[in-house]
TrEMBL record:
Pfam families the record matches: Cu_bind_like
Name the UniProt record assigns to this protein: Phytocyanin domain-containing protein
PROSITE patterns linked: PHYTOCYANIN (PS51485)
Upper classification of the organism: Eukaryota, Viridiplantae, Streptophyta, Embryophyta, Tracheophyta
SUPFAM superfamilies per UniProt: Cupredoxins
Subcellular location: Cell membrane
Amino acid sequence: MACFQRVVTSSLLLMITLLLGFSEAKEILIGGKTDAWKIPSSESDSLNNWAESARFRIGDSLVWKYDSQKDSVLQVTREAYLSCNTSNPIEEHKDGNTKVKLDRSGPFYFISGAGGHCVKGQKLIVVVLSQRHRYTGISPAPSPEEFEGPAVAPTSAATSLKGSLVVSLGLMLWGLF
Ligand SMILES: *[C@@H]1O[C@H](CO)[C@@H](O)[C@H](O)[C@H]1NC(C)=O
């Protein structure tokens, strides 16, 4: 019986660990695919269209894949973003495999450093929600059908569901002893 309890206990602990693991920071591939950092073919193909349906949280990292010979990623101010001014970026990345950690809430602005690409729409705004938004249902939410996608971070609903699962598992564990 003691042996059985130990097995149950360790399985529960494993499940709790796995559940908590899901709330860890994510690496989010820009556009959800490797060749997304390019001039969009249409408005609906734009990265901002993609970004609106994704969730970004503090601690997540954005990942860009592109040909370092032909393109780069510039993190810029809002003004430079709006005017596609590439001359004085906050950060310039041109290694072809760029990772930027989202270390605060608020907007992050990115434009392509390739000549003329920003003007043709190769640009991205990522808005990171503040911590407290994670647990309320209130956020500039996209419609549910837009929300499916491999690169999307968990919703606040998923977060609270996870929380209650952890609590009920904890109670089960408690009941065993
Ligand atoms: C671009 O930005 C730089 C520095 O931020 C500024 O000196 C320059 O005048 C800007 N160029 C244009 C075309 O706005």
